[in-house]
């Protein structure tokens, strides 16, 4: 799938064709937002209704992919607000506390061992889906979709500092779920504790430290 | 956490994905070498980043619902020929929604009338068939729709299934804009005409039949729920299908 910054589509047909190239990743993102196929389908459709209706507002030379993702996330936020559910802000305040309390456990598996799992994709998806929404969105947009911090801040309507903090904490929680087998579908495949010298890509994962670091 | 550790942890998101400027990266690395607890945290963040990048393409490859692309392309088609909002059905829906909005203001001081309910749901009927009509030939299984109503709304409602005898097909089940999107909307097609059934949970009304925006609305209550059936007015061809739906829904 395309990862480029989209040039200005020259007419309405070009714009539509260009926008529709992002249908698959938009649907995958909608799935992670809604965690329900029917809702994801509706959300993506509403996103394209708005995108085509407001095509004139798209600034030529800017990133069409990021623009579509911003519409997707705005639509999702409005829906949640309309349905009088928890707002993202309230949600995140609660989970930020929960996350900081959960960030101290020592992992029992290394990324390399986790990568060998045959159930890795399902485990990752389950672990992602178990993250609180605010963290799941930030981690997904950065590590799966590779948007910049500034783009994510605009999509989620939060400051860049908040984006970084959510990504940071979301990654920690995700890795803990995977390495300790607390994600629902990971439970069966984990259980072999690693020794203390296993390595993450940059630094050792399990150092000789006590788990808690609050 | 020590102040210095906190400062370092604030940089870990960028450290883990390699976007931290070189000077700060050195700072972080020196701290991690000397601080085992921060090293554990950094290891988790780098580990998650590594795993997600390794699986990103597969995570993004979520299979699309069969006709989603067709429907989105159809939306684009509306935009490239006449702009979507200029299409007659949409203009009609906008006009209807404006009237409904005025009606909604009135309803703040009076109990919502059947006429207002009919107008609101007719507007939703037009909007949904204008924007969310499934691809040609696609139908929805009634049991699937029942499961959806049960999971999404906690509603235990018998959904009238498609009927060859009445030339009636269940096309889709959605949420209606009315009442903050908490009302199920079942979309049918009968003899080439659009037909909608809405369910208002836990609400009872006297039976009524009325016309709004060129559509016939039939309201009735059964089993503690109210059903609202909307069909094009003066369309005798859907009369049998409408009777069938009214008899089956409970």
What is the compact description of this entry?
Chain A has 214 residues and is mainly alpha-helical. Chain A has ten helices and no strands. Chain A starts with 11 loop residues before the first helix and ends in a 34-residue tail after the last helix.
Architecture overview:
- The complex is a heterodimer of chains A (214) and B (250).
- Chain A contains 10 helices and no strands.
- Chain A has 2 domains: 12-82, Rna Polymerase Sigma Factor, Chain: A; 88-186, Arc Repressor Mutant, subunit A (Orthogonal Bundle), CATH 1.10.10.
- Chain A has 214 residues and is mainly alpha-helical.
- In chain B, helix 3 (22-34) packs across helix 4 (36-60).
- Chain B has 2 domains: 3-60, no CATH class; 68-248, Phosphorylase Kinase, domain 1 (2-Layer Sandwich).
- Chain B is of the alpha+beta class and 250 residues long.
- Chain B has a 6-stranded antiparallel sheet with strand order 1-2-3-6-5-4, sandwiched between helices.
- Classes of the chains: A mainly alpha (214), B alpha+beta (250).
- At the A-B interface, helix 1, helix 2, helix 3, helix 6 and helix 7 of A face helix 1, helix 2, helix 4 and helix 5 of B.
